[in-house]
Design brief:
With about 140 residues, the protein is an alpha/beta fold. It contains 6 helices and 5 strands; from the N terminus they run αββααβααβαβ. The strands form 2 sheets. A 3-stranded parallel β-sheet has the order 3-4-5. A two-stranded antiparallel ribbon has the order 1-2.
């Protein structure tokens, strides 16, 4: 949620509840007006739901940004399963590659890091995904 709000408003808010939101946002990219619809779902909520809710979100989306905390091993460890689930649902219907980007957040908290940049890069490479490390706070 912090990363989504930072993208939409350029402000950082450190604490969020476990709520799901859909945001709409216009942005000019390479001279073209792009309308983003962002379905922001906290991982704690996803873990509590059945697969049909997650399947609905996957079918709704055209691309995916999977965010983990570099300070939280569990948030990283669930990514391979999520990537596999997304690819099975989206690429099973067509031969077109689904855009997925893996984002390690909280780069500013490097002193609390438990997931290395190399681990993130290797997961992205082995899964054919993009990869970035960022700090929503900075």
């Amino acid at each position: 949620a912090a990363l989504t709000v930072r993208f939409l408003t350029r402000r950082f808010i450190g604490e969020y509840g476990d709520m799901e939101f859909i945001y709409s946002h216009n942005l000019t990219v390479d001279g073209r007006e792009i309308l983003f619809h962002i379905w922001d779902v906290p991982s704690s909520q996803e873990q509590a739901e059945d697969g049909s809710s997650e399947e609905k979100r996957i079918q709704w989306a055209d691309s995916f940004v999977l965010v983990y905390s570099i300070c939280d091993r569990a948030s990283f460890n669930i990514l391979p399963l999520k990537i596999q689930f997304i690819k099975a649902a989206k690429e099973g219907q067509s031969q077109e590659k689904v855009p997925i980007v893996i984002v390690g957040n909280k780069r500013d908290l490097h002193h609390q890091r438990v997931v290395s940049s190399e681990e993130g890069r290797l997961l992205a490479l082995s899964s054919d995904c993009g990869f970035y490390e960022v700090s929503a706070a900075e």
